Every structure is written in C-alpha cells, then in structure tokens.
Amino acid sequence: NDPNGDETYNVTVNGKVMSKYHLKAETVHKLESLIYEEKTGLLLSAIADLPEYNTETRVIGVNKQVVDAIRKSANTRYSHGSDTFMLIQLCLGEYDDVTLKPIVYQHASGLCETAITLCRALLDICLHRKQLKTAKTTIELIGQLSGQTWKGSPKCLMQLPSIGKANSRTLARAGLNSITAIRNSEPSRLEVLLKRHSPFGTQ
After folding, report:
1. Which of helix, strand or coil describes residue 87?
2. Is the pLDDT score of 179 beyond 60?
3. C-beta separation of 17 from 122 below 8 A
4. Backbone CA torsion sign across 101, 102, 106, 109
5. Closest by alpha carbon to 93, among 155, 137, 171, 40?
6. Closest-CA residue to 168 (of 69, 71, 93)
7. Which of 97, 98, 124, 174 has the lowest CB atom count within 10 Å?
8. Separation in Å, CA 163 to CA 2, 155, 203
9. What is the DSSP-derived secondary structure letter of residue 185?
10. Which of 86, 94, 89 has its CA nearest to residue 157?
11. pLDDT (tens digit, 9 = 90+) per residue, 88-141?
12. Can you tell me the distance from the alpha carbon of 58 to that of 103, in angstroms, rounded to the nearest whole number?
C-alpha cells in the first residue's frame, strides 16, 4: 500500500483507537461508518447496535416486557431501535410511568458507561477525519450520557445543588429547562418560583 494512502492511514488510526479503548476491530470499523451521522438519536441508536454490546439484555429483572414498557413510555424520546437503545434511554429520561426494579437501572447504567467509551472512540476518529459536525454531536452526546440526562430535559437541572425532581419540573414549566437558562435568570425569579428566601437565588 501507498504509505501516504488513505487505507494505510485508516488502519493506523483504527489501530490506535482499538488499543486506546480496548475495542474489537469490527466495532472500530463500524464506528468509522458513523462519522457522517450528525443526528443525536440516529447516532446513539447505531452505537447501541455495535458488537461491544452483548446482545443478550435479559439479565435478572430485564425482560422483553420491561423493554416494551420503556419503548411505549411517553417519556422515551426515540421509540424505535434495539433493546439496548431503549435501556440506555432509561438513564437519560424520567420514567415515572414505568415501574422498574433497581437491577434494571443498574444494568442500564452499565450500558451507558459502554456508550461513553464508544462515543469517545468515535470522537477520536471524527477528529482525525476532520468531521467536525459529527464530532460536535458526539461531544454533546458524551455530556448527556455522563450526566445521564437528555439535553434540554428538566432532569438536567437536578445536577444543581438543592434542585430535586419537583423543583426541576417547576423550573421547566417556567421555561427554565437548562443550566444556562438558570444561570441567566434573575435570582429573585428563582426564589419566587421555588418559594425560597434570599440569598437562595444567588447561591
């Protein structure tokens, strides 16, 4: 092969990614095919189908009925895709309408951790290939998976001190559904909405 050719270059990049993240060659090859995918839902769905995932999701407490309940929930952002994709979304959304055992959340959290690793590997490939739009989407996805909340979801507000589920919903109903929106809001408005006294809004 030409030492300056694309094929040799790709093998070098793929080899580094395989070694760095301890991934299968098949997984890295499929990651390479995702460098033009810029939509969050489609990207995460494709990542959930990668060979690094054990296709068997039926561990204790995780059966087809559980996955179907997640799929049919009004809180599931993307209802089409694999069982693994549904379980990853379980970590990112709120599921008050679905009764689930703690083991299900534990399993879903493990799937999220794997997704973060796969996203980081994809990011390395995108940066090498200068596919900056997909790199941006991937960076945002890593942040959402790490925080276990969709971007723009009221759940993301629960990362703030003293903001629980009820308060996050109150703020979201008032149009404050992101940390940036909270930061830019008047302290007095936050205190009124959450029925708190000064200096709560400035903390």
Report:
1. helix
2. yes
3. no
4. positive
5. 155
6. 93
7. 97
8. 58, 10, 12
9. S
10. 94
11. 999 888 777 677 778 888 888 999 999 999 999 999 999 999 999 999 999 999
12. 11
Report the distance separating Cα 88 and Cα 69, nearest Å: 14
Return the number of other C-beta atoms located less than 10 Å from residue 92's C-beta. 24
Tokens 């408005």 belong to: 189
Q: Contact, 97 vs 75, CB < 8 A?
A: yes
Place of tokens 């694999």: 82
Report field, pTM of the whole predicted structure over 0.90: no
Of the candidates 97, 52, 43, 46, which has an alpha carbon nearest to the alpha carbon of residue 71?
97
Provide the pLDDT for residue 121: 97
What 28-32 contacts at long range (C-beta under 8 Å, 24+ apart), as own/partner pairs, is 28/121, 28/125, 31/118, 31/121, 31/122, 31/125, 32/125
Question: Of 162, 142, 146, 166, which Cα lies nearest the Cα of 154?
Answer: 166
| CA end-to-end span of the chain | 61
Among 51, 41, 160, which residue's Cα sits nearest to residue 114? Answer: 51
- Here the tokens at position 191 are 């205190």
